[in-house]
Amino acid sequence: MSDLQQLGQILLQSVFAQNLVFIRFLALCSFVGLTADFNSAVGMSWAVTFVTVMASTVSYVIYQYLLLPFGLEYLQTITFILTIAVFVQLVEIYLKKAIPSLYRMMGIYLPLIATNCMILAVALLNVSEKYSLLEATVFSLGASIGYALALIIMAGIRERLRYAKVPELMKGYPLIFITSAFIAIAFMGLQGLGR
Amino acid sequence: MKSLVSIFNRGLLKENPVFILMLGLCSVLAVSVSVVNAIGMTLAYSFVLICSELTISSCRKWIPRSLRVPIFILTIASFVTILGLIMKAYFPDLDKALGIFIPLIVVNCIIIGRVEAFAYRKSVIESLFDSLGMSAGYGIAIIAIAMVREVLGNGSLFDIPLFGANFQPALILILPPGAFLVIGIEIAIVNALLKRIESKGGKSS
Amino acid sequence: MKEIVRLSVVLAVVGCLAGVALSSVYSLTRQQILLQEQKAIFTAQKALFPEAEEFKPLEIEAQVLGSVWIDRAYEAMNAENQAIGLLVNARTPGYGGMIVFVVGFDLDKQVRGVQVTSQSETPGLGANVTKSSFLDQFVNKSIQDPFVVKNDVKPITASTITTKALVQGLKSSIEWLQSNDRGGTS
Predict the structure, then answer these.
(1) pLDDT by residue (tens digit) across A110-158?
(2) Which range of residues forms the domain containing residue B111?
């Protein structure tokens, strides 16, 4: 299988068949909490994509050139989370000063990202799946796209649901989860994609 | 003493981290495929929560306000790493079963949130009860979901097959959609229960 | 200025404490962890060659054959220190991640069997790749067998991807065996 095919497969898999939200159960807190409003969903997606792709690439490099040669693999969790936290801080400061328009779009979501489990998960998976640097970057991108897809779909649906008649008990979170169940079924049907 | 018990109880139902606060969902849904795994996850999670809350609470006087978040992260991440090492050494099967969700305990919103809101401000003994209550609440939630998923989705409990060989389990329950379905329904049930308790409390006047 | 110094000192102290705690736990558990990893492999290999006394690791070059990672090879030795078979430890990309497995070969070019030591396939479906109900069909198969899924190989219910991954793993292991002159003359 050519390298390009391999990359394409990683991309398709992470967006659809192995979608990080619906199939791998990651980033659920932000999924449930931020999809009430379409704009927050979009803003958060941008922020997550930005941080995931860059922070996980940096984490990968740190792992390969700092942890691995010194036999310190067991420090990966603590190193990655610190990298992500520092990265988020730096990005926030930089955006505020240099690109205010971008900051207005996604800035407020940045502090929330520190506890987004998907970003740490992507950094950890890049290592455990033994990806090359390029594969890791593609995977991070695919994961973020899958996340954005999940958030936007859910936000769209929730806007519609506001006008629907829902039994009292089901209002709010129960409905969100049951809706997610159906979306998950749809994503499972995409299993064959990218093989 | 009474206030300590009420701190514990809060974590159990009224402020149940999973069903009410909606935190820590990732691990709950992913690990609830079998009850044994759910119990293992609860123990792992409790270890980190209790140790972190106790450590931060006992050192709270020395932690400068502006440095608290990095120190919280360092502390929690250290306990998670220690937990991971112990599990790989003595419980490798459970470690494999829980997989990536052990390191992900670090970003579990419950722990960081609890440490910030409680351990940093309250005494050690109060933090102990809070962490115990939250752990119990988490455990109840994840085990409740795991029971439904394992019994109906796999036809077993604690890996012991319950029904005869001809039983066709509802496979979807141990697959991702099933997780969402079960937690959705259980949240609805918990909400109903809470409403009942509240209305009963109001009636006694 | 004094404030920054104080903050840095606190941070450094915390960092050091964490470092000390972590490295001590690490050195305490390291041996045990290695032991556990070896035990898992040994159990799988013993399942394929119950009569073997020891498994001698062979010096091989780790390589990738047809998207399958060939990691290690061992020679199964019996009590009289004679070679009674060969084992190949490899990894193949499954549906949910890498499927780590061991293939055992007899001296007369027959497949002893396949054992799966690690997988993250769909529970209830692809995860059944570890079950003997699926793996038994590879026992005593000749390495010349075409191993076509659905024709020669009975697939796992609703898990063709997992099945194909494992079969590819088996075929690559056989390919490695033959190209490394250990399969004898064919």
Answers:
(1) 777 777 888 898 998 888 777 888 888 999 999 999 999 999 998 888 8
(2) 2-149
pLDDT for A145 equals 93
Task: Please report whether residue B180 resides in a domain.
Answer: no
- C contact chains, 3+ CB pairs < 8 A: A, B
Tokens 């050192």 map to which residue?
B59
pLDDT at res. B45? 92
| Residue B165 within any structural domain of the chain | no
Give A-chain residues touching C98 at CB under 8 angstroms: 129
CA atoms within 13 A on the CB side of A100: 1
Question: For B109-148, how does the pLDDT look when each residue is reduced to its tens digit (9 = 90+)?
Answer: 788 888 888 888 888 888 899 899 999 999 999 999 988 8
Instruction: Output the pLDDT for position B202.
Output: 55
- Mutate which of C20, C22, C162 to test chain A, going by most A C-beta atoms within 10 A? C22
* Shortest Cα distance, chain C CAs vs residue A26, angstroms: 15
Backbone angles phi, psi at C140, to 5 degrees: 60, 20
**Which helix (H) or strand (E) element contains residue B43?**
helix B35-58
Model ipTM value: 0.80
Residue A28 has its nearest CB partner, among B25, B85, B192, at: B25
Residues C100-125 pLDDT 10s:
899 999 888 888 889 988 877 776 67
Do the Cβ atoms of A195 and C67 come within 8 Å? no
Among C97, C98, C161, beta carbon nearest to A195: C161
Cβ–Cβ gap C10/B64 under 8 Å: yes
Of how many residues is chain A composed? 195
Q: Is residue B155 part of a domain?
A: no
Chain A residues closer than 8 Å to B178 by CB: 181
B136: nearest Cα among B44, B11, B51, B7 = B11
Q: Which residue, A54, A24, A49, is CA-closest to A144? A: A49
Subunits adjacent to chain B (3 or more Cβ pairs under 8 Å): A, C
Picking from C124, C121, A23, C132, the residue whose alpha carbon sits closest to that of residue B154 is C124
Q: Where are the domains of chain A?
A: 3-188
